[in-house]
Predict the structure.
Amino acid sequence: MTSAILDPTGGQRTAERVPLALAPRRQSLAQAKVGLLENGKQNARLFLEEVAAALRAQHGAGEALVRRKAVFTAPAPPELIDELSESCDVVVIGIGDCGSCSASAVADGILFERHGTPAAVICSEAFTVTADAMAEVQGVRGYRYLTTPHPVAGLTPEQVRQRAEAIAPAVAAMLTAARAQAA
């Protein structure tokens, strides 16, 4: 069954129930190259860099490669998905700290998974409605992503570090845990 759903990033699509086979997960993050896809929102880069630092300290992750999306309200272009997928073992995406950027972060996570790269999407908890709506637009109702308290944009660097350290174990679990196929 299909239905018209308003795309939270501004388009309109028809949702189809297309199962998402998640990318194979690593046993651990030891020496894994971590892609960081930041959206240009205030504190997004710092937050992701601090997540990567925590993954290195707590889980032995390798180096991180940071890339920035040109438009935070739109899914990443195919060439950016290709670059990070070819260069990195896993990708962390964020931060969804508004409605449209949360929706596009979820779209990015789904794109990476379909491309064979494990992804962990991080949104602030105030925007789960738009994140969930994007998953449905993409035909992946119930797509799992992580949340952190809202807001992230106005935090001090120390507060950003604390938030990143707090969510890092969940990021590691999402990137390494055997997960059931999404609905």
Notes: The chain has a mean pLDDT of 89. The CA atoms of residues 44 and 154 lie 11 Å apart. The longest helix spans residues 157-176.
